[in-house]
């Protein structure tokens, strides 16, 4: 079994920042584990500003981070590896196509799992099983492909993460047929005049491809013709590995509960970044990653 002084789970912004700071502080035996085949996490598709002090997109910030990471001599990387849980003796159970199921020992462990999208509560939305129904992150992945768009006439459910999609929609001249919002409307970026406040989706219809969606409130039901439905739900901290590892969760964020030193309920297991709560700015994550390494070294 391989053993490391520090194992970092997740190689998005928080994970990479922790690795860079660990190298600066002479933590010499570090493993960075990432489930995707590339580093960067949400930064990879981030074409929107993530800073409160300067104008920098997630993609630009990722380039800067990877340059710094490449100069770190003591960071081992393991990509395309899914962490399943952490055993009682701090042995990380993970799986990959290359190594199968294996255990990796970490003297200290940082959970930097990041965030996930909220579900669309599919059970309450009856109707046809048709294509054209996507989460916001999947829509961004399609926009990121050469000469590809998710659809032409798009209905968007939610506005919490709409800022992540604004540039793509405008760049490709997508016809946004409507945005379904709650009472406290956030910025809809002048994407459409059709704002359906306090409506719910009650039915989805389509023969192969989505054709229309039925919206209802206490007064009426209306049909909206569209070929694409995007769910822009609020992001949630990813607490799945923590839950499987008997780490106490924070019910307000769905991520692991941490103390002032960013330690979880289990000794030598720490957590930071969007994995503990959704941060508005990258500077706040940077401060956490410096603090967490200072608490470990």
Provide an overview of this structure.
With about 300 residues, the protein is an alpha/beta fold. The chain has 2 domains: about 1-115 and about 235-295, FAD/NAD(P)-binding domain; about 120-230, FAD/NAD(P)-binding domain (3-Layer(bba) Sandwich), CATH 3.50.50. About 20% of the residues lie in helices and about 30% in strands. The protein has 6 helices and 18 strands. The chain has helices spanning about 15-25, 60-70, 135-145, 165-170, 240-245, 280-295; strands at about 1-10, 30-35, 75-80, 80-85, 90-95, 100-110, 115, 125, 135, 155, 175-180, 195, 200-205, 210-215, 220-225, 230, 235, 270. The strands form 4 sheets. Strands 1, 2, 3, 4, 5, 6 and 18 form a 7-stranded mixed sheet that branches. The chain has a 5-stranded parallel sheet with strand order 9-16-10-11-12. A 4-stranded mixed sheet has the order 8-13-14-15, with no helix packed on it. α1 packs parallel to α2 (about 60-70) and α1 (about 15-25) packs across α6 (about 280-295). The longest helix is centred in the last third of the chain and has 15 residues, at about 280-295. It is elongated, with a radius of gyration of 21 Å. The two termini are about 25 Å apart.
């Amino acid at each position: 079994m391989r053993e490391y002084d520090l194992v970092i789970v997740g190689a998005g912004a928080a994970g990479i920042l922790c690795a860079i700071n660990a190298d600066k502080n002479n933590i010499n035996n570090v493993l960075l584990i990432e489930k995707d085949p590339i580093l960067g996490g949400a930064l990879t598709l981030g074409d929107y500003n993530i800073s409160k002090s300067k104008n920098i997109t997630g993609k630009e910030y990722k380039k800067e981070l990877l340059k710094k990471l490449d100069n770190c001599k003591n960071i081992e990387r393991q990509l395309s590896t899914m962490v399943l849980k952490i055993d009682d003796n701090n042995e990380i159970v993970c799986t990959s196509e290359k190594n199968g199921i294996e255990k990796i020992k970490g003297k200290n462990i940082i959970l930097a799992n990041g965030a996930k999208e909220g579900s669309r509560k599919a059970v309450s939305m009856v109707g046809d099983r048709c294509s054209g129904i996507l989460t916001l992150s999947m829509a961004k992945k399609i926009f990121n492909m050469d000469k590809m768009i998710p659809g032409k006439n798009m209905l968007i459910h939610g506005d919490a993460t709409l800022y992540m999609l604004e540039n793509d929609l405008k760049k490709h001249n997508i016809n946004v047929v409507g945005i379904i919002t709650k009472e406290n409307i956030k910025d809809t970026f002048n994407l459409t005049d059709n704002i359906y406040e306090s409506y719910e989706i009650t039915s989805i219809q389509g023969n192969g491809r989505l054709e229309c969606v039925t919206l209802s409130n206490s007064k009426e039901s209306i049909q909206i013709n569209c070929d694409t439905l995007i769910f822009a739900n609020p992001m949630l901290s990813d607490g799945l590995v923590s839950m499987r590892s008997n780490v106490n969760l924070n019910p307000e964020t769905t991520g692991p509960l941490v103390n002032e030193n960013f330690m979880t309920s289990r000794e030598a297991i720490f957590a930071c970044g969007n994995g503990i709560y959704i941060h508005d700015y990258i500077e706040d994550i940077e401060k956490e990653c410096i603090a967490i390494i200072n608490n470990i070294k």
